[in-house]
User: What shape does this take?
Amino acid sequence: GGIFRPHVPAPNSGEEKTPVRKGWEVGHRVLGVALLACGFWQMGEGIRLYAIKYSVSESAEDNLNIAYWVWIGVMSALIVVGGGYFKFKNMSPKDGHQQ
Assistant: This one.
């Protein structure tokens, strides 16, 4: 575990997460989403700066932006569909619990 990460209760221990742990989980998620948004912004700015530096036409810049967002959409869909597939693949058909 991490040095600064608060203790996580053992599974099936009946122990609840502390408020510090819950806050850490929320903060960790918010920071991750913020960094992901910064990465998307950075790519958009990089495409814009590339177009300025190399005198790319506006339509070509728009096409590159579209290609970038299509790529992001396809990869995101694969992650979501793949995650759902593996989650349901590991479920037992009888009782609906993981094997």
